[in-house]
Inverse folding.
C-alpha cells in the first residue's frame, strides 16, 4: 500500500509568503490539497503567491499584514476564518534576512529582526492555536529555523539569536499544545537554491537574494575581518530547493505525522551532520531527481 499524502479539506496559513521559501511551501500545501492563506508584510508579495497557486489550479487568498501587530494578526486570522471557517495548518516563515555582526549591529535592526521572528511566531501560534482549540481541530504548526539556530556564524547576530530561540520555542509550544492534540514542529533549511521562475528572473537583474552587509565606512584600527563562507562547497549533497522543503512540510502537516511533535526536520543535504573540519570532494553523485510539485512544468510561469 503506497503512502498518498493528502491535505484535502484542510486550510493553511503561511506567513512571510514571499517569492522564495514561503511561496514554495504555500505552493506545496496547495499541491497536496489545502486551501492556502498567504501572508506577507508586502501586499504584492502575498498577491503574487496567490497567483502562483491559482495558475496551478489551487485555491488561495492574500492576507497582507504585520506579524508583529497583534490586532493585525487577529484581523487576518479572522479573514481566513470568515472565508473558510477553520485553520488546520500554520507555517511561521516570516523573518528578516541580512544583518551585521555583534560589533556593528544596531539596536534598531536587532530589535526589529527579533520582533518579526519572535513576536511574529508567538502571536500567530497563540491566536491560530486558540482558533483550532475552539473548533476542536487537531492541527499542525511548523516554524522555520536555520542552520544558524544550531551553529554559530559571524555577521548575523540578530538572526542567530532569534533562530536559536525559536528552536526551544517550538519544543515548549509543543508541550503547551499537546493536550489539545495540536502538533508543533520546525524545519531547518540551509541556503536553499531558489526555484521560483519569477524570483529567478528578478535575481538575474538584481544580482542576488540576500541584502549585502551595511557596514560603517570607517572601521576602528582594531577591526579584524571575520572570515568567509563557502556554503555550497561544504555541503555533502546538493542544495535543497523550496520544492524539497515543501514536500517535507506537507508531510509534517499530514495525518501520517500525527504523533510527531517538538521535532526539527533538517533539509540541508547533510550540512548539519557534517564534521566541522570536513570538506566534501569536488566530484559527487547527484541525488535522485527532484519530484516536481506539478506534472506540467511548462505552464506559464513554471512553478
Amino acid at each position: 500500500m503506497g503512502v498518498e499524502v493528502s491535505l484535502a479539506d484542510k486550510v493553511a496559513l503561511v506567513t512571510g509568503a514571499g517569492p522564495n521559501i514561503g511561496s514554495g511551501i504555500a505552493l506545496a500545501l496547495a499541491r497536496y490539497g489545502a486551501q492556502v492563506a498567504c501572508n506577507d508584510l508586502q501586499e504584492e508579495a502575498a498577491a503574487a503567491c496567490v497567483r502562483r497557486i491559482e495558475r496551478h489550479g489551487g485555491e488561495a487568498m492574500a492576507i497582507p499584514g504585520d506579524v508583529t501587530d497583534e490586532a493585525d494578526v487577529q484581523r487576518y486570522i479572522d479573514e481566513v476564518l470568515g472565508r473558510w471557517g477553520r485553520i488546520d495548518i500554520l507555517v511561521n516563515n516570516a523573518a528578516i534576512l541580512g544583518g551585521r555582526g555583534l560589533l556593528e549591529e544596531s539596536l534598531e535592526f536587532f530589535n526589529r529582526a527579533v520582533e518579526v521572528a519572535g513576536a511574529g511566531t508567538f502571536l500567530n501560534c497563540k491566536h491560530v492555536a486558540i482558533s483550532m482549540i475552539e473548533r476542536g481541530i487537531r492541527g499542525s504548526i511548523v516554524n522555520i529555523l536555520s542552520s544558524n539556530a544550531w551553529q554559530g556564524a559571524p555577521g548575523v547576530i540578530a538572526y542567530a539569536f532569534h533562530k536559536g530561540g525559536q528552536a526551544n520555542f517550538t519544543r515548549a509550544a509543543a508541550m503547551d499544545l499537546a493536550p489539545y492534540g495540536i502538533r508543533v514542529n520546525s524545519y531547518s533549511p540551509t541556503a536553499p537554491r531558489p526555484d521560483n521562475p519569477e524570483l529567478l528572473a528578478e535575481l538575474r537583474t538584481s544580482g542576488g537574494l540576500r541584502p549585502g552587509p551595511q557596514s560603517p565606512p570607517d572601521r576602528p584600527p582594531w577591526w579584524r575581518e571575520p572570515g568567509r563562507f563557502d556554503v555550497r562547497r561544504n555541503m555533502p549533497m546538493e542544495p535543497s530547493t523550496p520544492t524539497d522543503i515543501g514536500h517535507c512540510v506537507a508531510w509534517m502537516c499530514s495525518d501520517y505525522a500525527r504523533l510527531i511533535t517538538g521535532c526539527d526536520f533538517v533539509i540541508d543535504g547533510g550540512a548539519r551532520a557534517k564534521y566541522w573540519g570536513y570538506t566534501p570532494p569536488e566530484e559527487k553523485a547527484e541525488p535522485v531527481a527532484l519530484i516536481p510539485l506539478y506534472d506540467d512544468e511548462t505552464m506559464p510561469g513554471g512553478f
